[in-house]
Amino acid sequence: MIHLGADDLAALLTPAAATEALATALREGLDPERCPARSNVPVPAGELLIMPAASATYAGVKIAGVAPANPGRGLPRITGSFLLLDGPTLLPLALLDAAALTTVRTAAVSALAIDALAEPDAARLVLFGAGPQAYAHLESALNTRELTHVTVVSRTGEAAERLVTYARELGLEARPGDPSDVSVADLVICCTTAHEPLFDGSRIPAHATVVAVGSHQPAVRETDSELVRRSSVWVEARTVALREAGDLLIPLSEGVIGEGHIAGTLADLVRGKTKPPGDRPRFFKSVGMAWEDLAVAAAVHRASTPVRAVPVGAEVRGLEPPDGGR
Fold first, then answer.
1. Is the pTM of this model over 0.85?
2. Burial status of residue 93 (CB atoms within 10 A of its CB: 0-12, 13-18, 19 or more)
3. Any bridge partners for residue 40, and if so which?
4. Are 124 and 184 in contact (CB under 8 A)?
5. What InterPro entries does the database record attribute to this sequence (predicted)?
6. What is the CATH code for 103-285?
7. For the domain with range 2-101+290-319, which CATH number is right: 3.30.1780.10, 3.30.1490.20, 3.40.640.10, 3.30.70.360?
8. Are strands 232-235 and 282-285 parallel, antiparallel or unpaired?
9. Averaged in consecutive runs of 10 residues, what is the pLDDT profile of the chain (326 residues)?
């Protein structure tokens, strides 16, 4: 079994390749609506998330820790590992850093949504957050649209300045900003730990696209009910969105929208089954799903082992005793 850390993921898989791994899974018929639910286990330091997924070729499970106090200790908020297994035999193949994998796959999911929903000439990005997800999402957005401007909105001025400097190094005009800057945005990305709406949804231009990835909790949201009411809404899967996405569940509980307000899913967009309307904002809400981790982990594993003379299962079966080892 190989161990793959953050540096390995960055070296083996480009953001574009991660996005294509997700798109390929959806084009080949994967149904996110049928994927196993996430298990949330409260622990003294925060919570453990247990996320299994399987295909004919691979299986895997992510055990991620969410430790809210860690950043104050100089440690990552998300910890844990993803165990990748051979699909036919369920033998371990690789252990991946869960925080790095989550960052890569979340940005790749957003890239798929941005590519399908954002205006072709979208150039002005307002980015809420300045942590690892913000950096990854900036790069994913640049891979899908020819951005020229980025405004960073963060509770921490020092972190915002670091991200602004990084954006300038990428050739963008960049500056720190505030929530009112959404009024001139073509694209808004929210990747924060906020529990309350970050901006006034009535200020979002009709042509703009909003992507929110920061929460998977029913009582927590980054966007307000007005944005959801005004927008065509897109999700990874209806089942998981209506179970976990506070950005949608809170407006539902208020009676602002009904369940039929969801226009479609990521699979619909990738497979070209439906197109977003152009007369109102487009809103994509992501909560993160285990099939995404599996698709990206499998792509990383294939890139790390380009030549295998014998299928993994064949090697093991050739060594197994007749009685199965019992």
1. yes
2. buried
3. 49
4. yes
5. NAD(P)-bd_dom_sf, ODC_Mu_crystall, ODC_N
6. 3.40.50.720
7. 3.30.1780.10
8. parallel
9. 94 95 95 92 94 95 93 89 97 96 96 96 97 95 96 94 97 97 98 96 98 93 98 97 96 95 96 87 97 97 68 34 35
